[in-house]
Give the backbone structure.
Amino acid sequence: MNPALQSHETQALCRLAPVIPVLVIHDLSHAEPLAQALVAGGLPVLEVTMRSACALEAMALMAKVPGARVGAGTVLSGYDAARAKEAGATFAVSPGATDPLIAACTELALPLLPGAATASEVMALMQHGYRMQKFFPAGPAGGPAMLKALGGPLPQVSFCPTGGVSLKNASDYLGLANVACVGGSWVAPQDLMEAGDWSGITDLARSAAALTA
């Protein structure tokens, strides 16, 4: 799958809901009920970051939940991408992009949402064929004002800003023409997961799913 087709796939995923939950799972028993809670709240696209020992096992469990579209976050290499796909991930998200990572995802036919933070990085990814990109770290990189500025000379690219996005400022991003969705961790806070408060997470997901500009 070449980058242009990858980008088409990731853009379709990013249009399914205004928020993609960015999930760090440390307890494998949380995986299935967490996915069920988020899907029930209207957030079907789930990014499980590869930052915990049980991340791959969690992806495998969550991928079996009806309605869930599970992807791997913090994918940094071809090795990460291969393990993620084997675990059941249907897309990959990276904070940046390298030629080896792009080549690996192309070979694996694993849609990649690559990260960019500057005009030069966005343009480099455009040359590869990526029209759907992650804007990271969104807050430190300039927030909505930076994305609006990028939209002037680079209107062909859509973004999923992640990093510093919250319920308080999500609508500021979603109101931009070049933003397809946002990524955020606030919909699945660790304290609610540890408490097993899945209904509370469903309520947060519903609020996120209802976000507009």
About this structure: The chain has a mean pLDDT of 97. Residues 8 and 195 are 38 Å apart (CA to CA).
